[in-house]
Every structure is written in C-alpha cells, then in structure tokens.
Amino acid sequence: MALQHAMPAMEYESVNPFDGKTLKTFVGITDEQLEKKLAAAQSCFGTWRHKTYAERAAIIVKASAILHNKFDDFARLATLEMGKRIGEARGEVQFSADILAYYAKNAERFLAPVALNPTTGTAHMESSPMGVIFCVEPWNFPYYQLARVAGPHLMAGNVIVVKHAGIVPQCAIAFEKLLTEAGAPAGLYTNLLVTHAQSDRIVNDPRIKGVALTGSVAAGKSIAAQAGANVKPSSMELGGSDAFIVLDDADLDLTIKWAVWGRMYNAGQTCCAAKRFIVVEQVADKFLEQFKAGLAALKPGDPMEEKTTLGPLSSEAALLHLVKQVEAAVAHGAKVSLGGKRIERAGSFMEPTILTDIKPENPAFREEFFGPVALFFRVKDEDAAIALANDSDFGLGGSVFTKDEARGQRVASRVETGMMFVNNISWSDAELPFGGIKDSGYGRELGNMGIQEFVNKKLVRFGKFEAPS
Ligand code: NAP
Prior knowledge:
By secondary structure, the protein is of the alpha/beta class. The protein has two domains: 12-238 and 440-459, Aldehyde Dehydrogenase, Chain A, domain 1 (3-Layer(aba) Sandwich); 242-422, Aldehyde Dehydrogenase, Chain A, domain 2. 40% of the residues lie in helices and 20% in strands. The chain has 14 helices and 20 strands. α2 runs antiparallel to α4, α4 (86-110) packs parallel to α5 and α7 runs parallel beside α8. The longest helix is centred in the N-terminal third of the chain and has 25 residues, at 86-110. The structure holds NADP nicotinamide-adenine-dinucleotide phosphate. NADP nicotinamide-adenine-dinucleotide phosphate (NAP) is lined by residues 136-140, 163-166, 196, 199, 214-216, 219, 222-223, 237-240, 271, 368, 370, 396, 436.
C-alpha cells in the first residue's frame, strides 16, 4: 500500500546553540517524495539481500575510511549544530568509523549458520535479512547513533530509512552523503526529513519490517505501540537515570574523576550518564565537597575551542526544560548545593548543578535530568545504596566504586539494569552490547547482539526420518 496522504512539509532548522543563530533551514519531504524513497529502499533490498558479505563490506569499510579521513569536517558540523565540544565530537566521529569497520569485519561470523543437535536428524539455524528497517534517532550523538544502526543492519543485508532528530538535519544529510560517496546503491541508506505523523505512517507501511528507536520514553511508547499494532519487531533504546554508587572503601581520587566525567561528558546529555550519585555516609561529605569543586571548575566557552570545558546544551528548548525541572525539584523540597540556573551569557548554557535532599515524593526522584544536573543521595550502607539504585523506573546502566573488585561485581549483579560498570563508566564499545530494561527499553545495539535484532532466525531440519504411517 502506498503512502498517499497530502501533508504540508515541515521545516527542519539547524541552530547553533552557542550563539542562537540559525545556520540553515530545510523543508521536510512531501508524502509523494516519501513514497518514492520507500519504493527505492524496497527495490534496493531486492538486490542488496543477495550480495555477499564481502560485497557489502566493501561499501561499509569505505564509509568508515572516509569518516576517519574527514573526521574534523564531520566533527565541526556536530559542534556547530548541537554544541558538542570539538574534542568530544572528533572522538564520536572516529568511534562511529570504528563501529562501521567492526561490523564489516565480523558480520559474516556473527550471522553464520549455527549447528543444532536434536536427538533425531540434524538441524541448524540460519540468519537472513528481513527488509527495510525504519530507524528513529536522537541528536545527542548525531553520528554514533547512525553508525550503531547502519553498521549492523546494512551488513546483515537489510536496508535502512532513517528519521534523525529535527535539530541536526545537517549531520543527518552528511551521513547519508557519506554512504553515497562510499558507493552505496540508491535506496540503501535514506535520510528522511519527515514529521512525527509521517513517521507513524512509515511504521504502518507494509514495506517496513522492523523499527529501531533511540530517544525518550515518550517517543519509545508512541513508536513501539505503532510497531506492536503491526506485529513488527522493534528495539527501543530509551532514557536513563543511572546510579553512580560510591562505597565506603572507594578510591575517592579515581571516583571523583569518573563522577565529573560521567555527569558532564556531552554537557550531561547522554542516556547512560551518571545521574543519581548514591554515596554511603562514611565518605559522603568528602565526596560532595570534591565533586562540587570538580564541577565548579568547569568554564563555559565556545565548544569549537579545545580549551573550553563546558559547552552549551543542544538547544534553547532543552535548556529551558532543564531549568524548569530544577525549579520544580526545588519547589518540592530539594536543596541546591551548586548552580541551579542558566548562565547569563549568549547561548544555551546551564550552570553545573547539584541537587540534594530529594525525597521520593519529589518528581525529580523519578525523572531523567538530561543535562549538567546531578542528584546527590546520602545512604547508610551498601544495601541501602542498592535499594535506592533499584528504586527507579529506568534500568539502563549504572556504576559502583570500591577498592574491592569482587565486592563491586556482587553489587553490580544486584542492580537491575542492562549494563553495570565497576570502577569505570566506559559505556560503549563496538564489541559490547548496549541497552536497558524497564522504561529504558528493550533490545540491544552493538556487539554480536546488535546485529541479531532484525534478522530472521530460521530453523532448517534434515536427515533420515521415518515417514508417518
Ligand atoms: P526524543 O524527543 O524522543 O527524540 C528522539 C527521536 O525521536 C528524534 O528523531 C525525534 O524527532 C523522534 N521522535 C520523538 N517523538 C516522536 C514521535 N512521537 N513520533 C516519531 N518520532 C518521534 O528524544 P531527545 O530528547 O531528542 O533525546 C534524548 C532522549 O534520548 C533521552 O531520554 C536519552 O536518554 C535518550 N537516549 C537514549 C539512548 C540509548 O541508547 N538508550 C541513547 C541516546 C539518547 P524530532 O526531533 O523531530 O522530534
């Protein structure tokens, strides 16, 4: 069934959050244009699915090499469009290139037939691509999020159509061009400047065989409901409010470094950032004092300058939302230990902030703060720390700091999340699965698990069987 509704096109606006100036605007596509793009993707799948892994890898490896070679150009665009500090942006681009190369190298091994050993006959499971996959992605890692879906799903033999976030159209277009430059056939990777209403219709379109979303819980609920109504598989990488647990025997120097990095990387706009700092009382005062000093030392400035330690948030809207959340938290009894306000200067800058005395009745207790705002909790002991960590609607990641690694692993096992880190928060690696439980979603991206999300696992059984009498 073709998409036939006549919808007015929306505008995608690229604004520099460092100075509030509009960089470029783009008119969204019409339904007629969308129909053509979906038809091209469907047609491309007809040939791409039959390519060998080596043929697919030739294109994906080339895309990886281009990203590596032009990493600074890609990085500058991200910094301009969503305010990420330039050093972080460069790291993101290089990591994105590594993800593409990782799947080019390993896809065939991950998707090779797996022999089974039934009592009668022989059997194996084989993996085959499903078709056109619709990916909806957020702005906070404008390239990494795209590499996380393009690498595995294209190497698996699927093709993808992508709706990127409204505030990063230039990065979205640059990534599509990258694939074209690498030799991708028409329709293999398609960027779609579409509205939410068009998104819903894309999910409903019978040519779409799976949906991958990374974003907020609200977006996840909406898109997952549409996918469910159509009995289509989906993966949901949603928000988080990760616990950062500090035990009495933690190495505080090491812990403080990770605490500051874990809360402030990407200006605090990371799904699995450390957001709730849960510290046992023996070390709570010392931790708070040093954490405060670490955050207070960050200096706002131009994210394009290497020396800047605090960049703007991604948009004025994100800043206003965060300030409102802090005000509501305070109105419900939280105390401001540091910061709490926007920084009075041009651009969308927020003071690094620490809130304390957050009671369970405070809405802040259950919310995600997507920016440089840390929630600090003092607890009696290890058990209380675990109980508080688990008292969350989210279940993405978390970390625990202790000099006793075995103790750290025991605590990690008792925290209900998709990922836990002991004495580090090295969140993401091409070869390790990434994802959460509860309101943080379901499914995994990256690693071997990431490529298995949208493939048909088919059982084939053979051998000598007695015919039914
Ligand atoms: P968002 O508002 O949910 O947007 C994410 C994407 O979903 C954007 O492309 C957005 O398009 C689209 N979208 C939102 N609502 C939609 C709807 N009803 N129908 C169709 N598309 C819809 O999230 P965000 O605020 O930009 O990103 C931050 C959130 O993402 C945080 O909660 C963060 O924790 C989460 N996140 C999770 C992970 C993970 O791996 N678990 C990674 C990164 C971020 P528009 O921009 O056009 O609205």
